[in-house]
Amino acid sequence: MNNQEEEIDLKRILKIFTRHYWVFLLCVLLSLVIAFLYNKYSPKKFDVVASILIDEEMNSPFSGSQNFMVNDLFGVAKNVYNELLVLQSTPVLEKTIRNLDLEVTYYEKFNFIYHDIYKQSPFRITFYRDHPQVVNVVFNISFKSDGSYLLQVDQQDAILYDFIRDKTISKIEVSELKLQGNLGQVVETKKCKFIVSLNEDLDEIPSKDKEYAFKIQNHYSIENHYKSNIQFDVADRNATVINIEIETSNVDKDIEVVNELISVYAESNLERKNNMANLTIDYIEKQIEDVSQSLDITEGELEEFLSKNKLIDVESQANLYTDQLRELQNELATYMVQKRYFDYASEYLRKQSNEELIIAPSAMGVQNALLNQLIMELSSAQSRKANLIENNQERNPLVARLTIQIENLHSVVAESIRSANESNDITINELEKRIAQIEYEISSLPEAQRTLGGIERNYQLNDAIYNYLLQKRAEAKITQASNQPDMTIVQPAAQNGINPVAPKSKIIYAFALILGLGVPFVLFYIIDLIDRAKIKTREDLQNLTNARVLGTVLHLPSRYRNKNVFMQMNRDKLNYTEAYRTIYTNLNFALKDKKNITILVTSSVTEEGKTFNSLNIAAAYATMKRNTILVNCDLRKCTKIMDREDPNAGLNKYLSGSISIDQIIQQTDMNDLFYIPPGIIPSNTVDLLSSAKMEELMTYLKESFDCIILDTSPLAQVSDAYYLIQYADINLIVTRCQKTRKKILLNVLNDLKSKNIDKIGLILNDNRNIKEQFSYGYGYYGKKQSKRRKP
Q1: What is the reported pLDDT for 177?
Q2: What is the pLDDT at residue 293?
């Protein structure tokens, strides 16, 4: 069954193509012509690509104090996806646009299309930023040989923009404008102010035979253009290479844009790296300033004491005490610097500052691996959060997670610093006790020597701290000077290949071919689907039901509607009368040549031709010398069939008891054919047709006529015909080509079957398939006679 359905569908598809082949040829030709014009005149786009390598810092933060600036202080691991966000961020793109001065776009018209000519424009537009400017408006400009130009603007929607405040003033409608000017002259209106001048970079004068245009745009419009056209992607999940790609019709311009974008990103990256170095240097400078003051004071005290006192050499024991004391003081100086750092870190955490990064412990010589790790994690989280916020990613879920992580790290770092500070204080106290013990031993020395030793000790302590800080400042500045962006340009922006990537000619031709075939096919297929729901051929009826198809009737001109073809048609139209003679023959076979017969003629819905077929079937019986009467029982419509009908002597009058049977039977112009008209539409049709008067009428007619034809109401719309089926020997259902719906007809047939009503025949009316009609033999003699009449 499925194979049969597939075969039928394939046949229908082939039939659509063969029947309408000229439409398909025309559509294919038209679509290919359009594709050819599109490929020829649309701007050619080329692929511009670039690649950069993001350097992931893999150095351990605990590798020692010698490289603390590189490994500890600034060693925040980079995440390639974070850097990808920075690279395509609005600030980076905005700075790129401003650096390249892309706010004015220049065009030249050729091949009926305006093309971006960038730096090849022979003229330049300088607009005044302190004056309101219309943006996104195309100014058409044509030059004359005397250096003047004509400026034209078509009516269009635009935006009035304030470049100073970087703000839209209002949305406006620009009216049609024509303005003449000279090169170097200021063009000023309420909505714009600019100067048209020659491009000094090109030794070229604008041609009077060429059409130019320009457009002023704000940076938002340009940003949106590049955001939607530049593609950024990571080359591989295991790599840190970012590919940058853009399809463009102006290769030179967008190569500059991509290269400048990379340059601006590198500057931004280096600026972020130097920020930490600057913080460290500022902190060390402040500490040096404080220690320098103390050093100046102790140095002055030493000089003053030496100038006032004449000292002798101390004994070897005093020298021993002094050496020991100096070592302890140097050690104490180191721990005092660490204490300063712990105090700084505690104050930083107390303020809950997130704007500045905390300095790494190893920068101040704090050798605490756990604390170094925690502060590195805190700095990393703060940097990532700052990058996201800087790139307008405040609503990114990662920001909330980083905020929680920073708060947790604050608590852990604070506890670690408190513990380290306590341990540092214990060490300082121990050193101070040892120093105090040595000072006590020294106290036994002469008073002047003891005083000198105290002054020298203070001086040496401050000098040690001062030298230590100078060393750290030098290291920080060296690191700052040697900083490089955490990126490497793998491939500068360049055109990828020599062939354009758009328009794709082969794909467009293929699409045009598919469109040329597909659009008409879909339309015809939809029409076919709609038509498939209707009866179109005799085969449709045979596939739908087992009921016998008794005949088909050719399509008739509208002037013969409801006419007796046996009376109206001449002998050149025997095809039509032959159809009813065939129906007559088939009826006789179906009724087994019964002498007195009653035929009920109906349809599923109106306008299927049941009345026309009732009349001509009756006429066919009359031509066979059968005494025939046609009874129009469709009391709901009361269609006039005969030219001479008396509406006051119709079936409804008899059934209501107003007149007798003899008064309603009318003789027609055809021998042996009589007619009972319906009369005026009554209000109680069902009551009349189911009454005893109707039964009485049928009894009389069966006794008086050889053949009774009952023209009844449609079965799918009203129930009138069901009351007359009991009188019929056979029930004819008239279907109409391209009118009768299969579903409705099938419902009617199923309803008749459920009521045990058999003896059903079908007639296909208004058949437009002439070949099918001739295949059943209709018109054979007509064709012969027509040939015989030819001279």
Answers
A1: 80
A2: 75
- 673-676 and 666-667: which strand pairing? antiparallel
- Cα–Cα distances in angstroms (integers) from residue 736 to residues 40, 228, 535, 772, 784, in the given order: 53, 59, 7, 15, 29
Pairing of strands 123-127, 113-116: unpaired
- pLDDT at residue 68 above 50? no
Rounded Cα gap, residues 119 and 342, in angstroms = 58
Burial of 325 (0-12, 13-18, 19+ CB in 10 A): buried
Token readout for 96 is: 């790129």
How many angstroms separate the CA atoms of 564 and 639, rounded? 14
**Residue 676 in contact with residue 665, Cβ under 8 Å?**
yes
Contact assessment for residue 97 and residue 221, using Cβ atoms and an 8 Å cutoff: no
In which band, very low, low, confident or very high, does the pLDDT at 600 lie, cut at 50, 70 and 90? very high
Contacts of 177 (CB under 8 A, 6+ apart): 151, 152, 153
Buried-state track 704-720, b at ≥16 Cβ within 10 A, e below 16: ebbbbbbbbbbbbeeeb
Contact 574, 580 (CB under 8 A): no
DSSP-derived 3-state class of residue 213: strand
Picking from 560, 580, 617, the residue whose alpha carbon sits closest to that of residue 731 is: 617
Q: What is the DSSP letter of 681?
A: P
pLDDT, averaged across the chain: 80
DSSP state string for 721-759: GGGTGGG-SEEEEEEETTTSBHHHHHHHHHHHHHTT---
HEC string of 516-575 equals: HHHHHHHHHHHHHHHHHCECCCHHHHHHHCCCEEEEEEECCCHHHCCCCHHHHCCHHHHH
Taking alpha carbons only, the member of 163, 100, 97 closest to residue 129 is: 163
In this structure, of 164-178, 326-340, 508-522, 750-764, the range with the lowest mean pLDDT score is: 326-340
- Here the tokens at position 786 are 């027509």
570 pLDDT band (50/70/90 cuts)?
Answer: low
How many C-beta atoms surround the C-beta of residue 225 within 10 A?
Answer: 14
Model-level pTM?
Answer: 0.53
Q: Specify whether the CB–CB gap between 269 and 87 falls below 8 A.
A: no
Distance of CA 788 to the CA centre of its chain: 70
Rounded CA separation 726/376 (Å): 102
Q: Which two tokens stand for residue 581?
A: 């003679």
- At residue 368, what are phi and psi to the nearest 5 degrees? -130, 100
607-650: per-residue pLDDT in tens?
888 988 999 999 999 999 999 999 999 888 877 777 777 777 88
Contact 603, 715 (CB under 8 A): yes
Tell me whether residue 575 is exposed, middle or buried, using C-beta atoms within 10 angstroms of its C-beta: 0 to 12, 13 to 18, 19 or more.
Answer: buried
Rounded to the nearest 10°, the torsion over CA 758, 759, 760, 763 is 180
Q: What are the CA-CA distances from residue 102 to residues 206, 220, 731 (Å)?
A: 21, 11, 85
Question: Coil, helix or strand for 31?
Answer: helix
DSSP line for 114-159 = EEE-GGG-SEEEEE-TTS-EEESEEEEEEE-TTSEEEEEE-SEEEE
Measured CA to CA, the distance from residue 669 to residue 645 in angstroms comes to 12
Residue 219 · residue 105 · CB < 8 Å: no
CA dist 558 and 708 (Å) reads 27
Rounded Cα distance between 174 and 158, Å, is 6
